[in-house]
């Protein structure tokens, strides 16, 4: 079976990683790359380097990864859809909900695979956590809380921390809970002298009743990527920097002191760091995209044993962007916003 002909547009900090993984993915051949500003990280190697999406399309591609700045997602994505090319667009899907909707509709109209690069879904800790939640290991889930903090990234200029980093937490939370957001309330601040917010504290509630909490900023000297899911049997803590998953179990030792026992609180039980297989999330994401493209072409997966992950669809990416924009509006208007279907 011939390899899928792949292209990459956008050779910045994320694009360089896409280039490496595209070159390593079974059943895929990277045949051309494009960036109007050249190849700052030297990833093109012996692959043709083009300036525009039109020049990239001319190579006769089956699939493309779009890693251009967020403000260009819609323009580049629509050109790829018009050319009939399956596309993975880095998150967020677009700069605005209207732009994201146009992208989703364009790919659907052509019957193309349109995916969004919400890479946290493919982190081994979160993959394992979702499977354990589905298995009922935590019982009823009460809350999903995330912390995503670190220094300001000079590469980000066209969106604020909510759309850049916060969309990770919005997507992974809805995915873990398998439920959409019903309402959000956010407070944000801007301290770095740029146009967009660089720190946000947000709470929310999902349609299934789970409450959420998100602390996201570009103003912390330490880097933190933590998801805590609390339920009736204890808490799971996923650290996506190290791909570690730890279970904090509620205590099961009976209490003889009646007044304490009647309080019905919880106590500390066993703490277990779980042993899980760890593969690079970006590789798993690319394999899921490859397999979705093959399925759309009526072909079987190249190596079905390597990944059972699914793509993040453009409709899912659009829902995430809707929540992000609601958080931005909530922070500006100082009110809780209820999301409608």
Automatic annotation (TrEMBL):
Gene3D superfamilies: Dihydrodipicolinate Reductase, domain 2, NAD(P)-binding Rossmann-like Domain. It comes from the Bacteria. The keyword Oxidoreductase does not apply. Transmembrane segments: none annotated. Keywords: NAD. One of its GO terms (molecular function) is nucleotide binding. Residues 127-236 form the GFO/IDH/MocA-like oxidoreductase domain. This is Predicted dehydrogenase. It comes from Crystallibacter crystallopoietes.
